[in-house]
Automatic annotation (TrEMBL):
Record's GO cellular component terms: cytoplasm; Holliday junction helicase complex; Holliday junction resolvase complex
UniProt comment concerning the protein's domains: Has three domains with a flexible linker between the domains II and III and assumes an 'L' shape. Domain III is highly mobile and contacts RuvB.
GO molecular function: ATP binding; four-way junction DNA binding; four-way junction helicase activity
Function of the molecule: The RuvA-RuvB-RuvC complex processes Holliday junction (HJ) DNA during genetic recombination and DNA repair, while the RuvA-RuvB complex plays an important role in the rescue of blocked DNA replication forks via replication fork reversal (RFR). RuvA specifically binds to HJ cruciform DNA, conferring on it an open structure. The RuvB hexamer acts as an ATP-dependent pump, pulling dsDNA into and through the RuvAB complex. HJ branch migration allows RuvC to scan DNA until it finds its consensus sequence, where it cleaves and resolves the cruciform DNA.
Any Pfam family: RuvA_N
GO biological process, one term: DNA recombination
Source organism (scientific name): Phaeobacter gallaeciensis
Subunit composition and interactions: Homotetramer. Forms an RuvA(8)-RuvB(12)-Holliday junction (HJ) complex. HJ DNA is sandwiched between 2 RuvA tetramers; dsDNA enters through RuvA and exits via RuvB. An RuvB hexamer assembles on each DNA strand where it exits the tetramer. Each RuvB hexamer is contacted by two RuvA subunits (via domain III) on 2 adjacent RuvB subunits; this complex drives branch migration. In the full resolvosome a probable DNA-RuvA(4)-RuvB(12)-RuvC(2) complex forms which resolves the HJ.
Entry keyword annotation includes DNA damage: yes
Entry keyword set: ATP-binding, Cytoplasm, DNA damage, DNA recombination, DNA repair, DNA-binding, Helicase, Hydrolase, Nucleotide-binding
Protein name: Holliday junction branch migration complex subunit RuvA
Disordered: annotated span: 160-180
Domain I as annotated region, ranges: 1-64
Name of encoding gene: ruvA
C-alpha cells in the first residue's frame, strides 16, 4: 500500500498531477480543493495517498490531510459511492464540511455535490454518522509534519534534513486551526460524559456558526447546544 508520496510536482492536469519521486513518476488524482492547494510545477509536494486496485485498474488518490483521506476511505465504503463521487463531495464541501454535514445529518449539503442524488446522500449520512466523531478528532496536514527545508531535503536526497540540534528530540507538530479546535472540543465534551455522536453534532453546529472560534469558544457554544431544553 502506498500511503504517502513526497517528491516534485512535474505537471498538473484538471483532476490529477504527476509527482516525481526520485525518478519515478506517480499519477495522483485529487479533489478540486486539494488541486487548488498544491504548489506550482517544479516545487516540492507531499500528499497522503490511497491506492485503488481493481482487475483492470490501479489508481492513486491524493490528500493534503488525514481527515480528507479518511473521509474518502469512508465515503467509498458506502454502497453506490465510488472514488469519483467521493472526490466530488470533498470538492464541494471540503473535509471539514463533510464532517459537519454528516455529524449534523445534513444530507441536503451532501446532495449539493455533483453527481450525488438524494437517496445516495441520505445513505451516506445514515451509514457514516457514527464515524463522524472519530474523523473530526483527527487533524493536521501532511506538510505540517515537515518544515520547508526538511521537505526539500527529502525530495533531493530521500532522507530528512539533519536536525539543528541532534541531541534534542524534535517535537511533533500538532494540528492547528479549526481542526485542532474541534478535536479539543470533542475531547473535552467526551471527558464531561457526552456521547460521541451528540458531541460531534454540537461541535459541528458550533463550528458552522462561528468558523473562527477557538477551542474554548467551541466548548462553550457546544455546551449551550447540549443543554436540556425547557
Amino acid at each position: 500500500m502506498i500511503g504517502k508520496l513526497t517528491g516534485r510536482l512535474e505537471y498538473r492536469a484538471q483532476d490529477h498531477v504527476l509527482i516525481d519521486v526520485r525518478g519515478v513518476g506517480y499519477i495522483v488524482y485529487c479533489s478540486d480543493r486539494t488541486m487548488a492547494a498544491l504548489p506550482g510545477v517544479g516545487e516540492a509536494v507531499a500528499l497522503y495517498t490511497e491506492l485503488l486496485v481493481r482487475e483492470d485498474l490501479m489508481q492513486l488518490f491524493g490528500f493534503t490531510s488525514l481527515v480528507e483521506k479518511e473521509w474518502h476511505r469512508l465515503l467509498t465504503s458506502v454502497q453506490g459511492v465510488g472514488a469519483k463521487v467521493s472526490l466530488a463531495i470533498l470538492s464541494a464541501l471540503g473535509p471539514d464540511g463533510v464532517s459537519r454535514a454528516i455529524a449534523l445529518g445534513d444530507w441536503a449539503a451532501v446532495k449539493a455535490a455533483k453527481g450525488v442524488g438524494p437517496k445516495t446522500a441520505q445513505r451516506i449520512v445514515l451509514d457514516l454518522k457514527d464515524k463522524a466523531p472519530g474523523v473530526m478528532a483527527m487533524g493536521g496536514t501532511v506538510t505540517e509534519a515537515m518544515d520547508g527545508p526538511e521537505l526539500d531535503a527529502v525530495v533531493e536526497t530521500g532522507e530528512p534534513a539533519p536536525a539543528a540540534k541532534p541531541a534534542r528530540k524534535k517535537q511533533q507538530k500538532q494540528p492547528s486551526g479549526a481542526a485542532a479546535a474541534s478535536a479539543g472540543a470533542l475531547s473535552a465534551l467526551g471527558n464531561l460524559g457526552y456521547g460521541p455522536s451528540d458531541a460531534a453534532a454540537a461541535v459541528a453546529e458550533a463550528a458552522a456558526a462561528e468558523p473562527e472560534a477557538g477551542e474554548a469558544e467551541l466548548i462553550r457554544a457546544a455546551l449551550r447546544l447540549l443543554a436540556p431544553k425547557g
